[in-house]
């Protein structure tokens, strides 16, 4: 046993003696981010757990259970050939549509939004699954209709029609944040597939116009925008959450007040362990802690983009488009979450990938990393099998 651990440590430090069949940097970075998330959610949720459940570690225990379930889901996903995801992408899209319709009928309402379906003790946030399933469908569509997308307006519009239907259902919940994430990722994937520049520009202009109208004609979204522009104008009303988050960032400074020493988490800052967990990271671990979390997520994003590029170079188009889509998704959602917490963007209910509290989000995000690991594994195996005996790596 000791000798085996010694061999593993040597491989990590000096490099493996045999060809590696999976992306170890991606795996260890994901586990590190999950670990940081578990520590910070535990710290951020103590006060609210004590008040709501008479147990200071209620949310921490649930979060740890979600981490275990997420890792089990990853172990299942890495054993599924990527080809199966391509074959099932229409089925996955259908499941996503059915779930989005079901949540409007039988969903559980929280804070005025119907986004969750309860199945016994388990609560599923449908939008998280819808994002993953839609991106799988889009990657498959770009493989089947690649030339149409590049040269034909009809081929470009078809996936946008599907996106519009899903966006409409999401806005009925309402879940504007997920719509924005899906729109940006869709635009990115179409651009990478070679859509014409004028189509790309028209899509961006249309999307921005639609988002502006959604904000203008929905009072609560307009209030969020105005409070974001000047939260100190109403620090105990519409600007309350943002001002408390900004105070957490200001108090943290460079190195933070120390793990567990946040004041804002003592129920001054709403959603401290979910959407605003980065504010607690900033207060307790300071700028250094925030940059560590960003660096971990950035490593995952960069690896996703590298895996996508290599897959396209190997003519594995579905693998490449899906990996690129996952990279764009994680980067944009993480950027929005941090931007909201730091006052750079209007408040949106989006979690920090792999770090915030939330079972559905964590499990789905971990599954996406599992998909990246599987795509990378299949690439490596193709290269190993293509290398003649006695040849180098």
Give an account of the 3D structure.
This protein has helices at residues 2-14, 24-44, 46-53, 58-77, 82-87, 89-106, 126-144, 146-151, 153-171, 176-192, 197-216, 219-229, 240-252, 277-313, 317-341, 359-386, and strands at residues 108-110, 113-119, 122-125. With 393 residues, it is mainly alpha-helical. The protein has one domain. A 3-stranded antiparallel β-sheet has the order 1-2-3. The longest helix has 37 residues, at 277-313. It is globular and about 55 Å long. Mean pLDDT is 84; it is low at 389-393.
List the helices and strands and how they pair.
Layout: H1 2-14, H2 24-44, H3 46-53, H4 58-77, H5 82-87, H6 89-106, E1 108-110, E2 113-119, E3 122-125, H7 126-144, H8 146-151, H9 153-171, H10 176-192, H11 197-216, H12 219-229, H13 240-252, H14 277-313, H15 317-341, H16 359-386
Helix pairs in contact: 2-4, 2-14, 4-16, 6-7, 7-9, 7-10, 7-15, 7-16, 9-10, 10-11, 10-15, 13-14, 14-15, 14-16, 15-16
Short description:
72% of the residues lie in helices and 4% in strands. It is mostly helical and 393 residues long.
Protein traits:
3-stranded antiparallel beta sheet; 393 residues; 3 strands; 4% strand; mainly alpha
